[in-house]
Design brief:
The protein has 206 residues and is α+β, with helices and mostly antiparallel strands. The chain has one domain. The chain has 3 helices and 8 strands. A 3-stranded mixed sheet has the order 1-3-4, with no helix packed on it. A hairpin with a 2-residue loop joins strand 3 and strand 4.
């Protein structure tokens, strides 16, 4: 009986042993969690690059069907967040699978699209400008505004708000660099809150 009692007392873990095991698990989890999150972000970034290429192909198909002219961009003064600005124009939808034009970093909203020239501002035809670095494609100097397809080195641009979910459009536009969205120093991963971008000339963020 005494031997059986001593054996019974050895079954299970002591409180100290349990705490040590929990501490080890916590340390391992703290090491692996950032790796998991980073891998998840990188997978989304890869998906965005693939889908932006498809959107860019759709824009090019639209241009081919419309004498080289890209679809009109639109903006609204009522929308004050980058999440709401510059939605993909509906004429592009017929060229893209419905599951391919929604930004995974911006749930419920499409990828962004902008082209200089005539477009819609508050649902009325007006002129839309595109800021392009003065030394494009080096993109190290402040941007200048282009108001037409004929003068702009970039005919159109499509982009995702990126892993950070975007940032305030007006705050970013008013900075001296004016790098939104054509300047490389505003692209992810160069910029923590940067965008994932595909330009009309084939250049894109890494």
């Amino acid at each position: 009986m005494a031997r059986r009692a001593r054996t019974a007392r050895r079954i299970g873990f002591s409180l100290v042993e349990l705490l040590v095991v929990i501490a080890i698990i916590a340390v391992i989890a703290s090491i692996l969690y950032p790796v998991f999150v980073h891998a998840k972000v990188r997978a989304k970034v890869a998906r965005v690059h693939t889908e932006l290429n498809q959107v860019a192909a759709a824009v090019q198909m639209y241009c081919d069907d419309n004498n080289g002219k890209p679809p009109l961009a639109s903006e609204s003064c009522e929308k004050i967040s980058v999440q709401d600005y510059y939605e993909l124009p509906p004429p592009l939808y017929k060229y893209i699978s419905a599951s391919r034009y929604f930004d995974p970093f911006n749930p419920g909203r499409t990828y962004k699209y902008l082209a200089p020239g005539i477009g819609y501002v508050n649902n009325s035809l007006s002129t839309i400008k595109l800021y392009v670095p003065a030394d494009y494609p080096v993109s190290s100097k402040p941007c200048v505004a282009y108001y037409s397809q004929e003068t702009s080195p970039i005919k159109w641009v499509v982009w995702s708000v990126g892993p950070s979910g975007g940032f305030d459009l007006f705050e970013f536009q008013d900075r001296p660099a004016r790098r939104f969205p054509c300047s490389r120093n505003g692209w992810y991963p160069y910029c923590e809150k940067g965008l994932i971008v595909r330009l009309s000339d084939g250049r894109s963020s890494p």
